[in-house]
Specification:
Shape: flat
Oligomer: single chain
Largest sheet: 4 strands, antiparallel
Structural class: alpha+beta
Radius of gyration: 23 Å
Number of strands: 6
Strand content: 15-25%
Helix content: 40-55%
């Protein structure tokens, strides 16, 4: 197909350039708001209980980067009108290509990834105790939310009077639209609503902006957070000596 995205998919050099952008994001964009994780470590063995994706890193692309250009090509207008067969083929091609990108990210940036994960998830841990020995990228997902106004990319926390009923969807839509129009914070929109005696806000006592949930890129991973075998042996010995 003569589509812009295939200019990237046919260029193997782009794989490394995309990987570089993603590794850079690990180094500069990972923080408590962009990383999510969930894992259990078994008592007695210090090993992670289940080998499955357990860590999720999300971030937005930067203007001018190859990752930004790839994203734009992936959602280019020239893809409109694809047949169902062509669309299925494109999804498969992109999926296989991103698997290669994922492998390149690990190859080029595993050490940087490990440092970023430790800093944000287990900052007080020592590498010799929790080496994060295995890191696998299970998927890289790319979306284009550039048409969404920034307020619409965030959750809202709404506090209402006990027992009150509010139309949550309508409130969220109104607040985010006012944010987009005026630059006000959610709290300022609420204050405005109270001043103007807008019935939509009668039963609402607080509105706060929550975490951002719409990002351009989502990297899902399995990270082995197990305790190092030597450290586990030392811990067991200490427990035995303590009786």
């Amino acid at each position: 197909m003569d589509k812009e995205i295939y200019k990237y998919l046919k260029d193997e050099d782009v794989i490394n350039l995309l990987a570089d952008d993603i590794v850079e994001a690990f180094k500069t964009k990972m923080n408590k708001d962009t990383i999510d994780y969930s894992f259990d470590i078994a008592k007695g063995t210090g090993k992670i209980k289940i080998v499955e994706q357990n860590t999720f890193f999300s971030f937005d692309t930067e203007s001018g980067t190859i990752l930004e250009k790839f994203k734009k090509a992936l959602f280019n207008d020239d893809l409109e009108g694809l047949t169902q067969t062509q669309e299925a083929m494109l999804i498969e091609d992109v999926g296989e290509y991103l698997k290669e990108v994922a492998a390149a990210v690990i190859e080029k940036g595993e050490s940087d990834m490990r440092d970023a994960l430790r800093k944000n998830i287990m900052p007080d841990s020592k590498p010799e105790d929790f080496p994060f020995e295995k890191i696998f990228i299970t998927s890289i997902d790319i979306a284009d939310f550039s048409s969404f106004a920034e307020p619409h990319k965030y959750l809202l926390r709404i506090g209402k009077r006990p027992g009150a009923f509010i139309n949550t969807d309508a409130v969220i839509q109104y607040v985010q639209n006012r944010q987009e129009e005026t630059g006000m914070t959610p709290g300022e929109v609420l204050e405005e609503g109270h001043r103007e005696e807008n019935p939509m806000f009668t039963e609402i006592i607080s509105i706060e902006q929550g975490e951002k949930y719409l990002y351009d890129v989502a990297v899902s991973m399995f990270v082995d957070y197990s305790l190092a075998e030597k450290s586990m042996e030392e811990l067991t010995e200490i427990k035995e000596n303590l009786g």
